[in-house]
Amino acid sequence: MIGRALSWLFGSSVSDTVRAAGEAVDSVTTSDQERMSEQRQENASARQFGAPGTHGTGFDVVIDGLNRLPRPVIIFYVFGGIVGAWPLADLRAVDPLWLVAGASIMGFLFGGRLLTKDLPGALLQVIGALAKRKG
Prior knowledge:
Layout: H1 2-10, H2 12-28, H3 32-49, H4 58-67, H5 70-83, H6 96-134
């Protein structure tokens, strides 16, 4: 009906343009069924990799455990040295270049965990507390 009204007002070229634009929009937009099938495909590809810690061999479990050790060992060493359980290294005897390199590695090691795991949870708690205060 709209196409006929536009063709009567402006001629057949405008109605052809409107029809072509409508077909282009229909081809770009996805239906709910297409979105669901895409979501199923994404879930299937994610399941291929499995959950962390679900390895097939004992060797994989040992290596996964070794990969998780550095952060707790570093924390235990530093806090134990601060408390006085053992002496820490004398930083005046270390080349400043190595101190900067060590600080950078520690920053990435702990900062990466902060950004990916700790910070989002903390932000959600703050937002929840603010919402409770307002509501």
